[in-house]
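Thread: uridine-5'-diphosphate complex, take 2
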Amino acid sequence: MITHIVGNRPQFIKLAPLYHELEKEGCEQNIIHSGQHYDENMSAVFFDELGIPAPNVNLSAGGGSHGQMTARIMVSLEEELTACRPDLVILYGDTNTTLAGAITAAKLCIPIAHVEAGPRVHNKENPEECNRIVTDHLSDILFCPDAISLHNLEQEGLGQAAYMTGDIMYDTYLSIADRVQLSDRQEEVIVMTWHRQENTCSRERMESILNLVERLDGKVICPLHPRTRKCLVEYGLLERAEKLPGFEMTEPVGYTEMVKLMNRARLILTDSGGLSKESSFAGAKCLFMLDVDMWEDLVKDKWLYKFDPENEENVEEALRFAGQAKRVDAADRPRHYGDGHAAAKMVQKLKERGMI
Ligand code: UD1
Ligand code: UDP
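Output below.
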């Protein structure tokens, strides 16, 4: 039995191709959902549209501080894993759900595979960095989205267990992009997402982001993460955001809708690790509003410009970058994240190592 442990929006997107690939191999699988993300449009929508069966168990352990959430997930997970005793646990990305899964499975001596292993931002103030480091070091097999991630793991002495498979989100992106037809008449837009702790933790920070949006040319569509909406309300900024000319905030969208948006974006403005990388699949350059270097190859290519919205010099540069950004043809997009067959490569490696 293989148990997938997921709980957050990007994890459902990463789970889909691997679940389907393991299904082709006839593997018995179950899904444990931590409940970290729980709104219909942050969770169920992805299971439906990506053809993943509903989770076997939902631990309903979302909300609260990092410690509270991680601990709640661990307590419930220990009971579930003890009951179903899987031969392998698969973890995705760098969230609290992943951290809880890694510690719990390791203490129960259940082998762990980590999908999206190896990115490092070399800054432990970034909460996800702590989750990535612990999870990688507790895992038995590590699947890297790019060459830099593999290099990072080699530097940390984990090279024996690590493979460059490419990014599994690219598998999902391609499976949807192939099906989605775009009407020629759809106008180009700037697509924005915004949710990281670092960008929602103070009124000043949120205001500086709204100030930047106000100075951008053209329509900005922003499917808003529930955390960000709650923080805008808390800081009394929602009305200002709603009145910004050309700024359209929507509810979070499903992945098909997201791919349609990305594919008509002339620029992506985000603090999302996933979307900043997807920008290179979709042909829209990325303004990244977080002080971490997660996808260094995209920075070197000048595809991704990282900036601090509270630093006026950075903001001026970001506005110049935005002013010049236009859609890039498929042939001219960066290609650092594999070939869209990451899931098949992962299954192959699991077989070679006798783990399935
Ligand atoms: C989490 C991950 C982050 C990832 C993101 C993906 C951690 C430390 N953070 O951040 O790495 O980039 O998921 O989206 O694991 N909320 C709702 N409804 C929901 C989900 C969240 O209202 O369905 C609200 C709640 O008020 C919650 C807050 O958003 O307290 C933050 O949610 P949480 O899961 O803690 O963090 P994310 O910002 O989603
Ligand atoms: N995404 C989505 N709907 C939205 C916003 C984002 O489907 O309304 C997708 C996005 O394209 C990417 C993933 O969700 O595939 C990224 O998730 P998120 O930004 O929540 O997390 P992160 O990547 O920062 O961990």
